[in-house]
Amino acid sequence: MSRRRPLPGEIGARPFTLTEAVLAGIPANRLLGDDLHLPSRGIRVPKSGAHSLHALARSHTQLDGDTFASLLTAAEVLGVPLPLWAQFRPDDGGPVTAVVEPVPWGKKSGPHFREPGRFLHLSRRNAGTLPRRRGVAGHRLRIRDGDLISVDGLLLTSPARTWVDLGSVLPLEDLIVAGDAIVSEHTRTFRAPKVAMFPLPELRVFVANANGVHGVRKARIALEYLRVGVDSPPETVLRLMLDDAGLPEFLPNFPVDDILGRPVWTDLGCARFRTCIEYEGMHHLKPEQQALDAYRDQRVADSGWRQVKINRIDMSHGAGWVVSRVKQALRKQGWLR
To answer: Over the stretch 307-319, which tens digit does the pLDDT of each residue have?
Structure first.
């Protein structure tokens, strides 16, 4: 039994094109090995190891100079949060045809086009032919100057253009979650400054000039709900729950001054009723973080603020439960409704 020839180091660790294989001197019969997956013509993916979405998309865009990543694929590569139904889940079971269905307005959950996570979302300019490959959802987009960027060799839509395009496939709430992540920035005393993917003032200008871009109508609605400083999708969802219930406005990344005048950064804060909210993710279960949280809680309480802690269990009970907890705190701080 002959021993399988190993692939060259870099190629063996990522998806690659047949052109790259030829340049690397890999013989044609080696490309038929059962250790390689064929997601689409002209591309091979080593079955060993996990491969990034970036690398897989890049292998497709290298096949021709006119194709670029867009919509859900561009969003994931850029680190924009998406609902689970929209995240990439490659299908190895043979040819699949993408069928895109618009999202009904006001609908909260997906999927809204058939199993979108099974596809790479690739586009060409409006005058070009539609990308048609196994495992690819092909789109034609009208591209303007500045709409495309390159990230480590992958051509894709910019954060602003990606967000507007997402308006054609995401429900409003998920579009707001994505937008909050794109514009999030803040400076805190205990960590390096967080830089926005695309600052909110510039995003407003971009959306105002995006006439004719599919998805811009919903993006213009979502834009009014975006807030700067959000650190996680649950914080956005929580804020929207409170807004929908008609509670006083809570602002993200809100500083509460302790008795020494030092800021305590809270996830959401309402200065009028001196009430703040912390969304506690899984990392808050670590002993070190619990010690820091206890110190934070004491500083907030000593300042005369009331704090509400919300976690994923609270969120699973629904908006009614979460809103009732925040209402109780607000009433103790003088809110009369």
So the answer is: 999 999 999 999 9
